[in-house]
Amino acid sequence: MLLEVEDLHIAYGDIEAVSGVSFGLEQGELVSIIGANGAGKTSILNALMGVVGVKKGRIMFAGKEITRLPAFRRARSGMRIVPERARIFPRLTVHENLLVGAYGLRKKIDLDSRLKWLYGLFPILEKRLGQPASTMSGGEQQQLAIARALISSPGLLLVDEVSMGLMPKLVDGVFDLLYRLNREEGLTILLVEQNAVASLEISGRAYVLETGSLVHQGPADKLAQDPRIREVYLGH
Ligand SMILES: Nc1ncnc2c1ncn2[C@@H]1O[C@H](COP(=O)(O)OP(=O)(O)OP(=O)(O)O)[C@@H](O)[C@H]1O
Ligand SMILES: [Mg+2]
Prior knowledge:
CATH class of the largest domain: Alpha Beta
Radius of gyration: 17 Å
Bound molecules: adenosine-5'-triphosphate, magnesium ion
Number of helices: 10
Distance between the termini: 34 Å
CATH topology of the largest domain: Rossmann fold
Strand order of the largest sheet: 6-7-8-3-9-10
CATH superfamily of the largest domain: P-loop containing nucleotide triphosphate hydrolases
Largest sheet: 6 strands, mixed
CATH architecture of the largest domain: 3-Layer(aba) Sandwich
Strand content: 25-35%
Number of strands: 10
Order of helices and strands: EEEHEEHEHHHHEHEHEEHH
């Protein structure tokens, strides 16, 4: 397993947001965790990145325990996140935002060829390189956040509700891109999403998170057929 999470508990003061969650990803998989507002999706990703503390449980990544490792060391070991609402740096230019993604890397990457590859995936970024990121539209900022995460060629990409606030056509485009990155580039991806329809469509396996606990799991196509899940998450 590339990532293995065992009995994860996350609390904010007295409030337990995640209660005993266990899941894992093999290298090369695209897996999603679907759940409603407040289910604990962002908390789980933040705990994986090391920006939120773990109350109890264990996180293994690439054969090493990282439960208490500082965030910068996790990033260095190849874990990257596309955060909720993109969180680009508004005053930096598009180009500078991209370079932030490569900052502090230990492994040598060929930055120029990596950038060229990214411009192929996101042509709009190349056209906007010199302008402040704040001037980009919401959909463009999402693309920038994905490109910023990809520049380091991560071993595991965490994606937090990338569909939020995007019009359906753009959602399809982003999900299609994630699917291709997984299938064609072999990128291992963990998606967390409210958009069950779109995420189940591209995932191999999925988990359903309800108020801090995983209540269903299995192959994505099976879950998409499950009447309990159809009723709550697919609207029929
Ligand atoms: N910093 C915090 N302090 C206190 N409570 C928090 C904090 N962050 C999250 N919570 C609470 O933890 C629970 C899980 O929140 P989380 O943001 O992980 O959910 P989510 O599944 O990402 O929701 P959404 O789909 O709205 O982004 C919520 O009840 C939330 O109010
Ligand atoms: Mg969230």
